[in-house]
Structure formats: C-alpha cells, structure tokens
Amino acid sequence: MKRKICIINPNTTKAMTHKIDLTAKKFANKDTEIISVEPNIGPESIEGFYDEAFCIPGLIEEIKKNDDADAYIIACFDDTGLEVVRSITEKPVLGIGEAAYHIASMVAGNFTVITTLSRSIRPLTHNLKKYGLFENCVKVTAIDVPVLDLENISEKNLNKLGTGIKHTIKNDNAEAIILGCAGMADLAKNLEIKHKLPVIEGVSSAVVLAESLVKLKIKTSKVGSYALPRNKRYMGYLNKFKP
Predict the structure, then answer these.
(1) Other CB atoms closer than 10 Å to residue 203's CB: what's the count?
(2) 224-236, pLDDT tens digit by residue?
(3) Is the pTM of this model over 0.90?
(4) What structural domains and CATH numbers belong to the chain?
(5) Cβ atoms 145, 43 nearer than 8 A
(6) Residues 6 or more apart whose Cβ sits within 8 Å of residue 167
C-alpha cells in the first residue's frame, strides 16, 4: 500500500529536519514516502511556551503546502500545534511526544522522560496529564542542554544523558526511557543497548503509528473537538490564516 507521510519540524533549523528525516526513513515501510519539511518563519528552536506560540503559523502553512499527504507528523516533542492541525484536516495527525508515550506504555510498566531544558518539564507534564498517561511516568527530567546543541552532540552532553538514564533507573525504578526531543532521535538504539532497557524516541514511534492509521483508513473526527474552524474575519497580518 502506497502512502505519503509529511513530517513537519516546527522550528526553522534545516539540520534538525535532516536528522529527523534520516530517522523516519530508517523505520518507514518501503511503500511509505516520507517528506520532511520545516517552515520559513518562526524560531530556530522550540524551548518553552513562548517559542511554541510563534511556530504555529509556519506549521499551518506547511500543512497547507503539503495537502496531498496521507498523514502528518509534528516533530517537536512538545507536540506543538497538534490540536490546531487536527482542526484543519481530517487526515491523521500525530505528535512525536504523544506517540512515544503510547509506545512506552505498551512495553513497560512505567517510564521516565528525559528532555533538554528544565523549562520544558512543565509543558511535557501538562501533555502527559492531557493524554491520561501521567500515572505511567515516574519522572520528567532535563539534562540542561539547549536543543541546537544536539545537532552534533558533544561527549560531555552525551555523558549527561547517560548519567540521567542511570540515575532514574537506580532512584526511580524506571522501566523505560523516553528521549524528549527530536534532536535525540539518532541516539535511542545505542542507549538501549548500553542501558539494557527500552529507550524510545518519538520520530520512529510516530512513523509506525501513522502508517497504521493510514492502513486502517482512520481519519480525524470532525465532530466536536476537532471540527473545522468556523468562518470569520482575522484582522491585520493574520488575515491569510482566516478559515
């Protein structure tokens, strides 16, 4: 079955989009076409609530440019704009954070999320509660490494990540680790071998789940929460985003 999945990196950093694309294609079915893109407007990285707000217009533009896709993946672990995008298309839309949480809950009794900066802990905790998976999570922690420093991760920062994993296994009895940033996507398998427990990242998780939803021909409900936006005026420079 031929299918096309569009992956949108909501920040504007092409190098990160390339890393996401390589991971996605590694795990995608041979009949799946992966298109990975990033917007032309918005922040170069998403680190907290303020950045999230300003990446959504560019995210919406990329959805509209790629309206021939069978499914969409938002490749920011905060699941930035996920509900917004589900409100403008009936095609399946997955966030890499949401996908990783669900995969982890199927293979372990609990998990720890290790993200980049401490300011991201609150948004991720909020999402876990929203998805009904907060009780499965024993800890959300950060290694205090900026997102863009993951493009070519240093030995020092890799050691920080390894130390964080060892600490949560010992002190929180973590049964699985979730890497809380798309920039960590290429690290998962080596860390899994080293620490001898499931290490899950969101890009591959979302690709596999998106393929399944397309195969099942399941679409996003337009009844209630994700109904299409009502027609109305949008003023000023936001006029081009009016429904």
Answers:
(1) 30
(2) 999 999 999 999 9
(3) yes
(4) 3-95+204-241 (3.40.50.12500), 97-201 (3.40.50.12500)
(5) no
(6) none
